[in-house]
Amino acid sequence: MKGKDKCKALKEIRRQIAEKNDIPYVVSQCKYQGDCLGTCPKCEAELRYLERELAIRRGIGKAAAVAGISISVCASLTACTSKNSTSDPEYEELGGAVEIYDPADETAPETDVEEPEDDKSGSIKESEQKSPENEDPETAGKIGDEEKEEGIGETNEPLDTDELAGDVEIVPESE
Amino acid sequence: MDPNFPTLPVFGIKRHRMTTDGTGVSTLVGAYGCPLKCRYCLNPHAWNPETLKKCTNMSPEDLYERVKIDALYFLATGGGVTFGGGEALLHVDFIRQFRKVCGPGWTLTVETSLNVPSAQLEKAFDTVNDYIVDIKDLEPSVYEAYTGMPVDNTLHNLKLLSESVSPEHVYIRVPEIPGYNTKTHIRQSVSQLKNMGFINIEVFPYVIRQENGIPKHNDTLSSSLPENIE
Predict the structure, then answer these.
(1) What is the mean pLDDT of residues B122-147?
(2) Other CB atoms closer than 10 Å to residue B122's CB: what's the count?
(3) Domain membership flag for residue B23
(4) Does A115 score more than 60 pLDDT?
(5) Which of residues 39-98 of A touch B (CB under 8 A)?
(6) Among A147, B52, B81, B120, which residue's Cβ finds the most Cβ atoms within 10 Å?
(7) Contact at CB, B76 and A149, closer than 8 angstroms
(8) Number of domains in chain B
(9) What is the pLDDT of residue B2?
(10) Using CB atoms and an 8 Å cut-off, which of residues 6-35 of chain A contact chain B?
(11) Could you tell me which residues come within 8 angstroms of residue B113 by beta carbon, excluding any fewer than 6 positions away?
């Protein structure tokens, strides 16, 4: 699966998580024309946004419905060009796609992740994000540690966030 | 980093794998070391000593910090971390420790040839969810010509795996290896695997990298190449 298809599949997963949990999340067309790695600072910001929203819901006693999204359904919705397994060149990718680890990858992205609107509204308090009682036991300590995040791995290439912006409009909860 | 706990020599991490490494969205972690020297190895850097200098030794906590960024995808799709390489089961002590750090919610998968001491495989049973096995070929002469190692360990571990892990959690790949095995060999391997109780068996052609129209192979084993390849 190539970058754009990956991006669409991941976006579909995010959309379904949002839908299952009544999280406002409006998807629009990605305006970036070139291929990508399947993620970008914009996509990462959306994922963090969902994590924060789920933490808020858990904080007020709502159960977070996260599990049970079918990757095959998400992938098929992207109308990607995946081939059947007997001729799938992805096996070649098994080798080629594992990039040689370079400590330089650990550096922070040159472009900051754009903060979703909900952060600007101040609706999410730091204490709400960090409070252990707000964490789902299943995911406790596994998500939502965005403060500690050290770069975004393969998204550390200097992506132009201006070009990528507008991919998804995140509607603030207060609206 | 606690010196009492194992570290993993990581040469690569690939996020957002889908439809290739088992269930859901997964992160592939490539670790150094392999007992085999396959002629068409897709990751020769996994056993090239030069790679070791470039690897980052990660503790289970280090790796967890690195991959948890996709925890929501893992939990939503039933995915997790796939350990590849190289031979993932060489690092089973690390994987066991990693499970303690990441908790029970993520699916842990190993990509393995099963050509490891049986004790290594046994240690995986209560930790690893899914097994992706690249079996090469079960005909001893073909296996040894292609990998440089005898098939005995693999056969023994296949039996052990079939007795210990539900067949739904084992995915066996039987490659068509140009110049090494034939359709007859492949049929025999598949039949043998079915008799052991495995159900997820996939036959597929190796995609061989070419150089000037000639299959690119690993030079260290050129003396054992079949005549029709050289």
Answers:
(1) 97
(2) 14
(3) yes
(4) no
(5) 39, 44, 47, 50-51, 54, 66-72, 74-75, 82, 85-98
(6) B81
(7) no
(8) 1
(9) 58
(10) 6, 9-10, 13, 16-17
(11) B34, B35, B36, B87, B133, B134, B135, B136, B147, B154
C-alpha angle B168-B170-B172 in degrees, rounded to nearest 5? 125
Whole-number mean pLDDT of chain B?
A: 89
Domain boundaries, chain A: 3-169
CB-CB under 8 Å, A92 with B42: yes
Q: For an interface test with B, which of A35, A71, A93 has the most B Cβ atoms less than 10 Å from its Cβ?
A: A71
DSSP codes joined into one string, B110-175? EEE---S-HHHHHHHTTT--EEEEE---SSHHHHHHHHSS-SHHHHHHHHHHHHHS-GGGEEEEEE
Give the span between the Cα atoms of A25 and A40, in whole angstroms: 17
Query: Are the beta carbons of A148 and B73 separated by less than 8 Å?
Result: no
Which residues of chain A make contact with B66, given a CB cutoff of 8 A?
A: 153
| Nearest residue to B98 (alpha-carbon basis) of B108, B89, B90 | B108
Q: CA B70 to CA A48: how far, in whole Å?
A: 10
Q: What's the confidence (pLDDT) of residue B208?
A: 73
Q: Is the residue at B119 inside a domain?
A: yes
B27: helix, strand or coil: strand
pLDDT confidence bin for B4, thresholds 50/70/90:
low
Whether residue B143 is predicted with pLDDT greater than 80 in this model: the reply is yes
With an 8 Å Cβ cutoff, are B204 and A86 in contact?
A: yes
Say if residues B118 and B156 touch (Cβ distance below 8 Å): yes
| Residue B141 placed within a domain | yes
B16 within some domain: yes
With cut-offs at 50, 70 and 90, classify the pLDDT of residue B57.
very high
| Least confident segment among A58-67, B151-160, B221-230 | B221-230
Cis check for the bond before B86: say yes or no (omega within 30 of 0): yes
What letter would DSSP give residue B213? Answer: T
CATH at residue B210:
3.20.20.70
Residue A80: its chain B contacts at CB < 8 A?
A: none
**Owning domain of residue B84:** 8-224
pLDDT of amino acid A144: 38
pLDDT tens string B180-201: 999 999 999 999 999 999 999 9
